[in-house]
Amino acid sequence: MSGTGGGSSTGEPAVDRQGRDLPLDAHVHKDQSPDSNVPIDVYAALALERGITELAITDHVDFDRRDPAYDYVAFSERERTVRAAAERWAPLGVQIRFGAELTYHRAWESDVRDHVRRHRYDYTIGSVHDWPDSPYTRGRVGAWASGRPIDEVVAPYFNEVVAAARSGLFDTIGHLDVVKRYLFPHVTPGELARHPEALDGALKAIAESGVALEINTSGLRHRVRETYPATWALVRYRELGGHNVIAGSDAHRSEWLAWGLEDGYRVLLEVGFASLAFRRGTETVQVEVPDRLRLPSVASARA
Asked: Any idea which fold 25-302 has?
């Protein structure tokens, strides 16, 4: 499971996209994920400095023993770490929620179901990654993408996303079209955008289930240079009746906390979403997207 990872495939970004004065970053990995070494207090201090008032800590949990976050850190230790930090930082103005990014595949859905039944999270993200036997691993992806229609190329990935959405296990579906990262450069984001029907099944399943669709801004620092999902997919999601969205930076390093998040918030406003659907344990709330982020044309139209 490679996830979206913490680094950039193209080096340090030239544009300052550091988010500031935002109500929520709902996708953050700390040092209890195998692909991050950032202590929770470092993130909390940066959130305070940057005006990010709420964080969801969503360390990876894998269910295939070949994946790096399989049995990586015990639930009890993860919960203790996050809830203790939440107590320390709440008086200072940073709210911290205990979440997880759970890797989904139908092959281990029963294990995921058992996990969420036995363990209490404030918030859960269900994500499909490049599972060990998938055609999207580095050693297979080139041959898989060669000569196949795009719909067929992405079908194994989006079939799992559909199942994840319909499972009822998650609050959010993470980085919907991260498959474009695995496919690049064999299939480019532009080529995928010319085949929007390839995403329709997944978008419809998310819209019908009521689970939130995440706009994940880590793609802005990857070679694909666009969010997961792309703006056009968010437009299509809304056309299909989708109404729940959330935004996260998918930070794995301290400098990535809230990076690109303003861009993500602006896209949501531009498409027509004014709030984020976020579960805080026993209640789901609508977190308002700051109106200051509206593009001038959108703000004028609203007025």
From this structure: TIM Barrel (3.20.20)
The answer, as to whether pTM is greater than 0.85, is yes
Residue pLDDT, tens place only, 77-88: 999 999 999 999
Distance CA(27)–CA(29), nearest Å, equals 7
Is 44 in contact with 96 (CB distance < 8 Å)?
A: yes
CB 33 within 8 A of CB 252: yes
Q: Considering only CA atoms, which of 267, 277, 208 is closest in space to residue 232?
A: 267
CB 262 within 8 A of CB 17: yes
Domain range summary for the chain, segments of one domain joined by +: 25-302
pLDDT tens, position by position, 19-46: 999 999 999 999 999 999 999 999 999 9
Exposed / middle / buried, residue 47 (Cβ in 10 Å: 0-12, 13-18, 19+): buried
Tokens of 2: 């490679």
